[in-house]
Design goal:
196 residues; elongated; mainly alpha
């Protein structure tokens, strides 16, 4: 029996699975690592949150432009926009991890920046804190789920399996767009509570 040659998608399957596991695990581990705990005297990279929030906004913009391009039959622009979206997502991830390795986490409603929410702070935050938590959790969960979806969708396009690419892209696009947009919303909602 002759063995069928592996498709491009088949060749990348193991790598996609590995990357889809390694990235969230690495981010979770690095999120708990603080450089100051290892003797590094580093200032918090407090200039990064507005930059990586802007990169999330650019990702959303590139995604929409990419979809509009393919709907207008412009495959080249579509390819560029999707590649830029992936690049922005990677840049965001690097900046996000770098920021959290140098700064303590900020809690929604923590006006005095002590890392705790007292009764007054909870009352001031009100129901918007629940909205923030919902957006944040859905953003985090979907940002993990979107990794393999983006990679598989991209590889299907590279392999020119456009029927399968399009079918998965119809699911991938709205989830990826949600992750990008909620990344901006999370920043806008938490930014008043950053310590200066």
């Amino acid at each position: 029996m002759s063995k069928e040659p592996k498709t491009l998608e088949g060749k990348f399957k193991g790598s996609i699975i590995a990357v889809s596991i390694i990235i969230p695990v690495a981010v979770a581990v690095l999120f708990t690592v603080k450089l100051k705990d290892f003797g590094f005297d580093v200032e918090p990279l407090s200039f990064l949150p507005p930059i990586y929030a802007s990169i999330n906004a650019m990702t959303a913009l590139f995604l929409v432009m990419g979809v509009l391009a393919i709907k207008n039959g412009n495959r080249k622009v579509h390819e560029r926009m999707m590649t830029l979206s992936i690049a922005c997502s990677v840049i965001f991830l690097v900046m996000y991890v770098a920021y959290h390795m140098t700064a303590d986490s900020t809690k929604y409603g923590d006006i005095n920046h002590d890392g705790l929410l007292d009764a007054t702070e909870l009352a001031n935050a009100g129901s918007m804190r629940l909205v923030y938590i919902f957006i944040l959790i859905s953003h985090i969960v979907l940002s993990v789920a979107i990794i393999p979806m983006v990679l598989i969708t991209y590889v299907r396009a590279l392999a020119q399996h456009f029927d399968r690419h399009k079918k998965l892209a119809k699911i991938t696009f709205p989830i990826w767009l949600y992750v990008a947009v909620t990344g901006v919303l999370v920043y806008l909602m938490i930014s008043p509570y950053y310590a200066n």
